[in-house]
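Something for you to look into today, if you have time. I want to see for myself how the chain folds. Leave the record below and I will have a look.
***
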Amino acid sequence: MMEGKLDYLRTRSSTGRKQQVKRSRMPRSERAKQFAPFSPLNGLNEALRLKELEHSSIDRVEMTEDRACVVNEKLSSLYPGEQVEVTFYSFGYYKTLKGVVSEINSRTRTLTVDDTEIHFKDLYDIKAR
C-alpha cells in the first residue's frame, strides 16, 4: 500500500442513511505504534523472575580451615581506601563486588565495600587490586 492514498469508509449518519467518508491512510511508520506491547498483569514478569531466582539459589559452601586462614590473612592486611574484589554469600547466591574498602569493623565483624556491608562469615574470597 502506498502512503497518501485515500480509503473510503462507509458509515451511517445520525439519520440512518449510508454515506461514504474519505480519509487518508495511516503512514506505515505510525501503524506500528498501534501494536505496542501490552501487559495486563502488572508485575507478573518481575514476580516470575524472583520465583525463578528463588528456585535456582545454592547452598553456602562449607569453608575449610585452610580457606578460612587465607581469607583471614587477606582480611587482616586490608585497609580503608584500598581497591578490592570480594566474593561473598548473600541470600542464596555468591556475588562478586569490586570497589573500595570503606570500613573494617572487628567489633561487628563486618567489612564495608563502597556501601555494601558484608559479614566476615559470608566472605569467600578477597583480592586486593
